[in-house]
């Protein structure tokens, strides 16, 4: 409107007053007609025939051409960010859908999957949010597209050289008969806590993590609380630093950990044996293994109509713990870039070629060749 007004003012310098008035009236009529048509077009775009803009909570963004932007739900841990970008690269370059990434905690992202502001996340850990996850599935708004990788283990670990030694580094086996958590009672002196002599140091989860309390219960259930202190490393970074420091120095270490992470991709750790998990055991003292954790690919149910080809691809997406850990180790060594780790993954492992049609494979391969 301002542009039209300036043009009208410029015309008044050269046109008779009556003609100027007529031109102005004609301009106003044309403007109002165009605005009315435009409002009608915008109104029809939110009736459900096409998804609205990404992040508005109503189902994703209109993209260049006729394909919507597909939004991935990112969490704070590295593995989901890498897998989101692996899938995102294939979807963007192979299927032609623009992609975006939305950061959030587990429950807000799950809510986004239900209301459509998030379309996909490559790692949903339902065992951590069983009630909320089941409610989302029962609503019909969220799809379970299958496992990303096999059930993720967690438990008590030692560096492999503690049991097997490391001839290349001149490290002799320190506890060759250490197999299970029950064996730790015989080896507590090997892990002696410098701040509390007379007990071994068990590196626990940071205070505030659920596993911190669980491990304290386990130490008691296994009769190890008189032999080990549950040492608080302060943070995930502190826990990782304790492992890397021990590993580089060839020193004994025992504590809680999980897979997959860059630590398990870079260092060889051995998980100590525990009695098999059962609900009865778990609910009566936790003197057994942690329950296995499923890691699922989840999507908003409307993705079936928006991008059925993408849904078929995601159903076939399946990796391994070792592949994920290796990608995370690469990311750590290269400075922590999830996109770079995704490119490395796609160039290193070729399983993805079986997940997509031949023409999609060719487009993704060509795009990878253009990545440094």
From TrEMBL:
One of its GO terms (molecular function) is transmembrane transporter activity. Residues 43-62 are annotated as: Disordered. SUPFAM superfamilies: Periplasmic binding protein-like II (SSF53850). Gene3D superfamilies: Dipeptide-binding Protein, Domain 3 (3.10.105.10), Glycine betaine-binding periplasmic protein, domain 2 (3.40.190.100). GO terms for cellular component: ATP-binding cassette (ABC) transporter complex. Residues 69-347 form the ABC-type glycine betaine transport system substrate-binding domain. CDD domains: PBP2_HisX_like. It comes from the Bacteria. InterPro entries: ABC_Gly_betaine_transp_sub-bd (IPR007210). This is ABC-type proline/glycine betaine transport system, periplasmic component. It comes from Thermaerobacter subterraneus DSM 13965.
């Amino acid at each position: 409107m301002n542009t039209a007004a300036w043009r009208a003012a410029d015309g008044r310098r050269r046109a008779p007053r009556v003609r100027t008035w007529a031109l102005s009236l004609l301009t106003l009529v044309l403007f109002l007609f165009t605005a009315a048509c435009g409002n009608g077009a915008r109104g029809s775009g939110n009736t459900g025939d096409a998804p609205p803009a990404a992040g508005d909570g109503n189902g994703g963004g209109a993209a260049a051409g006729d394909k919507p932007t597909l939004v991935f739900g990112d969490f704070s841990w590295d593995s989901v960010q890498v897998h989101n970008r692996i899938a995102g690269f294939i979807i963007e370059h192979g299927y032609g859908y623009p992609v975006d990434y939305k950061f959030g905690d587990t429950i807000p992202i799950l809510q986004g999957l239900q209301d459509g502001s998030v379309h996909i996340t490559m790692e949903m850990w339902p065992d951590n949010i069983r009630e909320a996850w089941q409610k989302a599935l029962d609503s019909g708004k969220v799809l379970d597209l299958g496992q990303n990788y096999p059930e993720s283990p967690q438990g008590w670990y030692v560096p492999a050289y503690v049991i097997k030694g490391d001839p290349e580094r001149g490290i002799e086996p320190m506890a060759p008969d250490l197999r299970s958590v029950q064996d730790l009672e015989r080896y507590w002196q090997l892990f002696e806590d410098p701040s509390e002599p007379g007990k071994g140091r068990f590196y626990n989860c940071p205070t505030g993590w659920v596993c911190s309390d669980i491990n304290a219960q386990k130490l008691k259930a296994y009769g190890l609380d008189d032999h080990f202190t549950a040492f608080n490393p302060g943070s995930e970074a502190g826990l990782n630093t304790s492992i890397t420091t021990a590993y580089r120095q060839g020193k004994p270490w025992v504590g809680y950990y999980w897979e997959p992470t860059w630590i398990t991709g870079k260092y060889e750790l051995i998980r100590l044996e525990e009695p098999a998990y059962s609900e009865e055991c778990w609910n009566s003292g936790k003197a057994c293994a942690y329950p296995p954790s499923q890691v699922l690919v989840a999507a908003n149910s409307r993705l079936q109509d928006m991008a059925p080809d993408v849904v078929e691809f995601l159903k076939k997406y399946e990796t391994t713990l070792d592949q994920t850990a290796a990608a995370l180790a690469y990311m750590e060594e290269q400075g922590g870039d999830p996109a770079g780790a995704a490119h490395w993954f796609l160039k290193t492992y070729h399983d993805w070629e079986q997940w997509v049609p031949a023409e999609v494979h060719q487009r993704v391969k060509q795009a990878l060749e253009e990545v440094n």
